[in-house]
What we know:
- Belongs to the universal stress protein A family.
- With 149 residues, the protein is of the alpha/beta class.
- It has a single domain, classed as Rossmann fold, CATH 3.40.50.620.
- It is built from five helices and five strands, in the order E-H-E-H-H-E-H-E-H-E.
- It has a five-stranded parallel sheet with strand order 3-2-1-4-5, with helices on both faces.
- Helix 2 packs across helix 3.
- The protein is elongated and about 55 Å long.
- The relative contact order is 0.24.
Amino acid sequence: MKILVLIDGSKWSQKAALHAIGLAKRKNAEVVLFSVLDIAEAKAMAFNFCAQSGICDQLKDYEGRIWKDMRKSIEDDQNSILTRYQGERIRCSTKIVEGAIREEILEEANSGEYGLIVMGAFGRSGKSRIGALLEQIGGAVRPPLLVVR
């Protein structure tokens, strides 16, 4: 069995990854830590910074720096979790893709490789209701989906 764990850098996705350790041990499963970098998010952050600072002539430079910071942050998160899995002697790998979050997750989740998808109940925004991502993918993911609170 293979388990796909969605990692977005939030404490909720880290909690989901920790919960998946027990599942992986019981099922002798392999785990893939999966993240999507969305260029639209980097562009929006750069635009907001530009609008607040009034330095819009450097917008492309800010986009590039934000994109680089986003990638490093998610790589650091994944590597931290990967180290924990290795310490537990669980087969684990990481995967980062670029694109639209919903489409990339659905493509990976529905690839036929996974017996279970695990995700945190909330994303980075920490909104008090179940995350918007769950609303976007919940009915379209074919494998069972475990949402960790």
